[in-house]
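Dear colleagues,

As part of the handover before I leave the project, I'm documenting each prediction I ran so the next person doesn't have to rerun anything. This entry is a single chain, and its sequence is reproduced below.
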Amino acid sequence: MTKFRIADDVAWLSREDLDDGTSPMAYAALLPRGRPMSLEGSACLVWLAVADGGTWEQILTATALMADIEPAEISDDVRALIDSLVAAGLVQAD
């Protein structure tokens, strides 16, 4: 079963770290010269779920819980975002 996690050569922080208190946001970049990517709103929630690591289903469930929504309503979007994060090298599939 495939598990996803943030890649080893990625630096990131969330708006929570900046103590902003507004909508969820994270910034991630491949080191040493990667261009920063901002993940806002629900994309940030997916990122935070990936930060905890897990299977696609675990990440989907965690994201749905954070968003207070049914997993079936967001499964296609979560899958597409994880696929794009893997393609960008920010997330690793093990």
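The helical segments are 15-18, 42-52, 56-67, 71-87. The domain at 3-93 is CATH 1.10.10 (Arc Repressor Mutant, subunit A).

All the best with the project,
I.
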